[in-house]
Structure formats: C-alpha cells, structure tokens
Amino acid sequence: MLTIDKIFDASVALKDIIRETPLTNTKDIAPGCSLYLKPENLQNTGSFKVRGSAYKISNLSDEEKAKGVIACSAGNHAQGVALAASKCGIPSLICLPDSAPLSKVEATKSYHAEVCLVEGCYDDAYNKAMELKDEMGYTFVHPFDDEDVIAGQGTIGLEIVKDMDDVDAIIVPVGGGGLISGIAYAVKSIKPSVKVYGVQAAGAPSMFNSINGGHIACLENVSTIADGIAVKQPGENTYDIVSKYVDDIALVTEDEISSAILALIERQKMIAEGAGAVSVAAAMYDKFPIKGKKVVSVVSGGNIDVTILSRVIERGLMRSGRSVSLLIELIDKPGQLKDVSRIIADCGGNVTSVHHERASKTENVNGCYLRIAMETRNHEHLKEITERLKEEGFKIVSK
After folding, report:
1. What is the pTM of this model?
2. In angstroms, how far is the first alpha carbon of the chain from the final one?
3. What is the pLDDT of residues 192-202, one digit of tens each?
C-alpha cells in the first residue's frame, strides 16, 4: 500500500538520480494570487517522469534487474524509464508507435535504451510491450497506475512543502493521475489544510469525467496539444487516491494552454510543453478559488515538439489579442491603403501583412476587401484601432 513512509523512502532512493527543482516566483502571470512554479521541465529528461520510474526500478529484485524492464510510451515516460534503467545499470526496452516523432525516438535511444518501433498507435505498442514482457520476463514499468511510481512522483509534494511551509494550494496537471496522486497523498499526509487541485485538457477529460461521474470512465478519443496528459482512462489506484485526496479538478481549453505556454516563454523565459502548462493556465484563467493565496503550479515537463511550438505561440498570441487579422471593406480608389496604414500606425499597431482583393460581394460596385494582419498589445488596443477605423468611415467585416 502507498504510505507516507514509502514516499520518504523514495526521496532518499532518488537523491543521486533526480534533480531537486527549485520553486520559482512569477511576475504578472496570475495577478490575483502569489504564484510560484515547481519547474519539473528542468528535471533530468525534461519531465517529472524519471522520479516514479527510478523508484520503481530501485525496488526490483536482483533477478528482476538482471532480466531488465520494459515500458510503452511515446514521450516522457519512455525517457524516464530509459534514464533510470541506465543509472541502475540494467537493460531497458521501450516500445514506441512508429508514428512517434523522430526527436523522441532519438532522445530515448540517447539514454541507452533499446527501442522497438511498433506499427500503429499507442495501443498497438502497449500490446507489443505486454507480449514481450511475458515472452522475455521483463518487468513492466507502468506510466502511472503503480504504487512505487506514484510514491516517486510524491517526492515533488515533499519538496514543495519543505521549500514553502505556508503554501495554500498546489495545482497539478492530470493525465492518468500518477503525478497528482503522489503529490496529493504526500501533501495531505503532512499538511491537510493545503488544497490540491488537478487540471486536465478539455480535449482529454478522463479523470474529470471519472470523478464527476463517480466511476472510472474511458474516453472514445482524445484531442489536445497537451499530449503528455492525453490519457483515455485513469488507473484504478490513481482514481481511488484522487477521489480521496484531491480537492477539485478543472478543465482548460487549447487557447488557454497556448496562452500559458506563451506567458511562460515571455515572462519566465521557460519552455513548457502543453501538459506542463495546464497548471499555469488554470491559475491564469481563475479555474480555482486562489485569489490572495500562495499557490504553486507544477510545470510537469518541457519536452514540446519544436515543429509545433511556432503554431502554439501563434495561437497564444491570437488568444491574448497580440496577433490579429482584420477584413476591411474599402472603396477601390487611390489612398485607401495609405489611410488604413496611417490609422493603425498612429494607434501604435504594427502591420505584418496585407492582402488586397476585388470582390463582387461588397455593397458598393467599386468596393474591395483588404485583409490586414497586425501586431497589437492586447484586446483593448485592438478595440482602439477598430474604433478609429470605423470613425474614419471604414467598414470592419470581420476579425
């Protein structure tokens, strides 16, 4: 059974394997509260996952270690198991779907793991891992529904309480529930008054639905940029622990996640993946009653695929009113573009692209459309620009 003694034991076992990540104060990310970050994106392998994996592996018998471990993952868990096994000097085999990004495959190999690419999706890779486990006698390291793994993740809770004994609330990303289970159990065992809140992406609300429905629920599909917490079904152990020790769970949208990633980059100079940023998004968008409180958001990982980072940033800019596109109806005559540009410039906006087209759908037979993309400070700044354009006779068709 999971006990607080087991979590303390994990903290000792992990001393030479993990990095004790320091709490970091934030500025202006969530003005209503005093927000601190627990930056597990700075952890070895760029994610908290190595904690649970390493503690699980440390508890194996000599015979089990000699045979090696096997895991199935397309991301952080794979790298955590690979590093932990390498540190303990035992072999590891990671089953990955062949659709996994090359960068994650190579990162897993860099920690001296053997990689088995499986045709199909995650479920196909999982089935292959189960097959090889039975065939070769490997020990399977579950990504979240294992008491040793949960205990390892719980060391984050111990570190938070040790570093900030007056913390009021801790906000934690939730996928399968291993991370929040460990943190909630540890924190509530030491200081029951501390609130522990969980956050899921709206496109993958498996634990949210399960807790609110009173039973473990399985999603038909998941869709979110927070791929690290895109889990269809929580575990039995994690569901029970979350039911008992977590105060509330909320959902955040894709736009809110993107805005949080952008805020961390700009204001904290910190890269977080979607799963790691959901806890910050929850604080930014008032998902919990934390006004005036001392709050820690756990940034669970930073392994975002660079190929989608630019799209996430653009989405965050649009959500915060920093990047906008206006469709303006004009009379097709000289000087119109000059006047529009002048108004935007006078208001402090920055035009980044212009597309002009004649169209038959305008009310005036001499009408045309002008599509302008521009940079603005925020939604209020955008409103100022559009009002000025309207005052000078320009018709805003859409934003």
Report:
1. 0.88
2. 56
3. 999 999 999 99
